[in-house]
Write a structure and sequence with these properties.
The chain is of the alpha+beta class. It is built from 25 helices and 22 strands. The longest helix has 58 residues. The chain binds adenosine-5'-diphosphate (ADP) and magnesium ion. The site of adenosine-5'-diphosphate has 13 residues, from helix 6. Belongs to the TRAFAC class myosin-kinesin ATPase superfamily. Kinesin family.
Length: 840
């Protein structure tokens, strides 16, 4: 049962999140960092792992709703005429094919290759079709799909007078002859009425494109007012829109009709006053639909637009000898229609990935309404007269090109940000509960999944530091957030250490860029280094302890046995021992030196390090010190603590290490047992539940069938009896196991304590050993040697770290860097030191 609930929540949350991530444009940008969303993401990641274990088939697509590819529908409507060219235009019985036969042009002679017969197969030939039938065939589906979120485009194409406007707008004075436009508006409002579960808004706009200029056919409305700046076509991630075009909210059919008539009137007026020829302009009436569920929890809503396009006459005006304005119009129309044709050809060609939409205003304005994700329909209007046959042919060719275009209608889903946040918050609360259940089932104590505060982050930082120092064996995994923070703190600590190393180096040395030849030659001139970058007087290029990192080091110089290394250390350690070897800071410095000690070819060492003579307040250079030259070269640093720790564990600390390991393995074994017992308890609990259920079933069956009593005693059948026995037995088992678990937990706590103690001892003893081995003056070392006056490990800490300096001075430094218990312990240690001094 738990699994089912969890899967459901998980998947629904995924789909919510998926939706957010799929959102387009501005919204995605704004909401991606929403705290609720981020919190949900965290919880999802926490749950994801366990979900993946449970449901293997989790790689289904939940987020996208892709439509399948669909061909553009192309229809032919023939304008009725008394003079119909029967011998030239023939329809086949399928109602789809139209055959054209052209008589041979006698002027071309008897033998010519002129083609005379064509056949065009379209989706339907509308001959003598009523406005009603045309609407049903052409537009009804497109409009009803628009309410489900699909964009739609219906275009009328054809020569002037062929019936485009009649098809699109119809006769405005006659209701029966109304065209696609008013009928579409009627259908939209009718569907809204039929869908009380949704709040649907309708807006309309009416655009005219004339000679490559944009006109708002609804700008005459009193509340719109004339636009100051010319309209422009703007593209954004949501699609294409016309900046400056008025869009009108219409709450009822009648309002929508008024707007349509207003636009139609403006079209006619413009043709008189501005001397425009209305058949030379393209008109686009757009209905914008937005449908939201009235259920508040549903944050999804769909939008769509229906473009109803009445194109300019397609006749080849250029052929007739037109002049002036007419010629200009002709050029524009021809251009825009041929650009439309080019775009259509490109859309129909699967290999083309660039569609030339921006060549003219018409295709640019229709960019997201041609092809793409729309339901698209073309009505080609033709004139059935013999004189128009050439134009008819050209229109039919356009129609068959259009038929090659495929689109992929897709629902335009959008998300209501406010509703979505509310839903996410609910989901978040559920997920938290879910995690709490998971944790308790997995026998984990209550884990907090909230973002971390500064104190928690500081604690992790300290854990990481202790881990790096070696005082913390492992960092327990709690949750994803904590793991991420641990890594983050690793980065923080690393970069701090890098900076510290660099600043320490800068304090001590002058760093010269190896590529800075001027600086190098200056140093060479000053006689500090020779041509190879070796320090003058340096015997073989080694010896960082002498203060120089040379350009090159001879191979084979580096490897030295650890023992020898340790022996060589004591003297230099004495000089370096300005601060406690226990402190992290000191560790950093030693690491940095190790890094700088040249170990390979020239190219590996980037900076040349020269000890600054002026600022150096330490020793003179090696060449100036004959005493130093007599000694074998020594490394200036003790071995790294982790390396030394391994040695320690094998040598002096072997016994305590063995006990530590033993305790740890006992602890692990107990933990494993506790987890197994928990699992058993859970299993018994499940079985108890199941048995109880079965028993209840038996009981209700018995009650239904009528109970049988004998001398006041209830008689039950064997099955029920066995179930009761089983339940009793299970309960007993449960109690026993539970008691075991309690005992185990107590044992685990005790063992944990032991392990902690051992770890502490191991580390303390290691520190003492480390200091004795690498930081103890020679005289003291002699004393520590077998037969000496002091036993190893018994040397007081203060003595070890004082290294001949003023004890009190050293100790106050130690207080700042190493005393683990903080300021409260100062007086305690002060007293101890005094006592030890007295003894010594
Ligand atoms: P276009 O817009 O293509 O230039 P119109 O729609 O203005 O053509 O049509 C020209 C004339 O033909 C108009 O008077 C119109 O009423 C008439 N007409 C066109 N198609 C039909 C039709 N199918 N039935 C009746 N009349 C039509
Ligand atoms: Mg017209």
């Amino acid at each position: 049962m738990t699994t089912t609930i969890t899967s459901h929540h998980f998947l629904s949350t995924c789909s919510v999140l998926g939706s957010v991530l799929d959102l387009e444009g501005g919204f995605k940008q704004d909401k991606r960092h929403h705290p609720v969303l981020q919190a949900a993401c965290y919880l999802i990641s926490e749950l994801k792992l366990s979900q993946m274990m449970r449901s293997k088939n989790s790689n289904k697509h939940y987020f996208t709703k892709m439509g399948s590819r669909k061909k553009v529908h192309a229809f032919v409507r023939v304008r009725p005429t008394d003079d119909f060219a029967h011998e030239m235009i023939k329809y086949r019985d399928d109602n789809k094919t139209i055959d054209i036969h052209l008589k041979k042009d006698s002027r071309r002679g008897v033998v010519n290759n002129q083609q005379t017969d064509w056949s065009f197969k379209l989706d339907r030939v509308l001959h003598d079709a009523s406005q009603d039938l045309v609407y049903e065939t052409v537009a009804k589906d497109v409009v009803s799909q628009a309410l489900n979120g699909f964009n739609g485009t219906i275009m009328c194409y054809g020569q002037t007078g062929a019936g485009k406007t009649y098809t699109m707008t119809g006769a405005t004075e006659n209701y029966k002859h109304r065209g696609i436009l008013p009928r579409a508006l009627q259908q939209v409002f009718k569907m809204i009425e039929e869908r009380p579960t949704h709040a649907i808004t309708v807006r309309v706009s009416y655009l005219e494109i004339y000679n490559e200029s944009l006109f708002d056919l609804l700008s005459t409305l009193p509340y719109v007012g004339p636009s100051v700046t010319p309209m422009t076509i703007v593209e954004n991630p949501q699609g294409v829109f016309i900046k400056g075009l008025s869009v009108h909210l219409t709450s009822q059919e009648e309002d929508a009709f008024s707007l349509l008539f207003e636009g139609e009137t403006n079209r006619i007026i413009a043709s008189h006053t501005m001397n425009k020829n209305s058949s030379r302009s393209h008109c686009i009436f757009t209905i914008y639909v937005e449908a939201r569920s009235r259920t508040l929890s549903d944050e999804k809503y769909v939008t769509s637009k229906i473009n109803l396009v009445d194109l300019a006459g397609s006749e080849r005006l250029g052929k007739s000898r037109s002049e002036g304005r007419v010629l200009k119009e002709a050029t524009y129309i021809n251009k825009s229609l041929s650009f439309l044709e080019q775009a259509i050809i490109a859309l129909g060609d699967q290999k083309r990935d660039h569609i030339p939409f921006r060549q003219c205003k018409l295709t640019h304005a229709l960019k997201d309404s041609l092809g793409g994700n729309c339901n698209m329909v073309l009505v080609t209007n033709i004139y059935g007269e013999a004189a128009q046959l050439e134009e008819t042919l050209s229109s039919l060719r356009f129609a068959s090109r259009m038929k090659l275009v495929t689109t992929e209608p897709t629902v335009n889903e959008k998300y209501d940000a406010e509703r979505m946040v509310k839903n996410l918050e609910k989901e978040l609360a559920l997920l938290k509960q879910e995690l709490a259940i998971h944790d308790s089932l997995a026998n984990r104590t209550l884990v907090n999944y909230d973002p971390m505060d500064e104190i928690q982050i500081a604690e992790i930082n300290s854990q990481v530091r202790r881990y790096l120092e070696g005082t913390l064996e492992e960092i327990d995994i709690i949750n994803l957030r904590q793991i991420q923070e641990v890594f983050n703190q690793f980065r923080v600590v690393l970069s701090q250490q890098e900076q510290e190393v660099e600043s320490t180096l800068r304090r001590k040395y002058t760093l010269i860029d190896k590529n800075d030849y001027a600086a190098i030659s200056a140093v060479q001139k000053a006689g500090l280094v020779d041509a190879d970058g070796h320090l003058v007087g340096e015997p073989d290029g080694q010896g960082f302890g002498l203060g120089v990192a040379p350009f090159s080091t001879k191979p084979g110089k580096k490897s030295k046995s650890k023992k020898m290394f340790k022996e060589q250390l004591s003297s230099s350690a004495r000089k370096e021992g300005a601060s406690s070897p226990l402190s992290g800071k000191d560790l950093d410095v030693s690491t940095s030196k190790t890094q700088l000690t040249p170990s390979s070819k020239d190219g590996d060492v980037k900076d040349m390090v020269v000890r600054d003579r002026e600022t150096s307040n330490t020793e003179p250079l090696a060449s100036d010190s004959p005493k130093e030259e007599l000694r074998p070269p020594r490394p200036s640093t003790p071995p790294a603590k982790p390396v030394a720790f391994e040695d320690f564990k094998n040598e002096r600390g072997s016994e305590i290490n063995r006990i530590f390991k033993e305790n740890k393995s006992i602890l692990n074994e107990r933990r494993k047992r506790a987890s197994e017992t928990t699992q058993r308890i859970n299993a018994i609990k499940r079985e108890i539940d199941m048995t109880k259920e079965a028993l209840n079933l038996q009981k209700s069956l018995r009650e239904k069938q009528g109970e049988y009593e004998n001398k006041g005693l209830m008689i039950i059948d064997e099955e029920e009896f066995l179930l009761i026995l089983k339940l009793k037995d299970l309960k007993k088992q449960y109690r026993t196991e539970y008691q075991d678990l309690r005992d185990l937990r107590a044992e685990i706590q005790y063992c944990q304590h032991l392990v902690d103690q051992c770890r502490h001892r191991l580390l303390t003893e290691f520190d003492i050993w480390y200091n004795e081995s690498f930081f103890v003056p020679e005289d003291l070392q002699m004393a520590v040697k077998p037969g000496g006056s002091i036993r190893p490990g018994m040397m007081p800490l203060s003595k070890i770290v004082s290294l001949g300096e003023d004890d009190q001075d050293r100790f106050s430094q130690l207080q700042q860097t190493t005393l683990p218990e903080g300021p409260d312990s100062v007086s305690f240690y002060n007293a101890k030191v005094k006592m030890e001094q007295k003894h010594n």
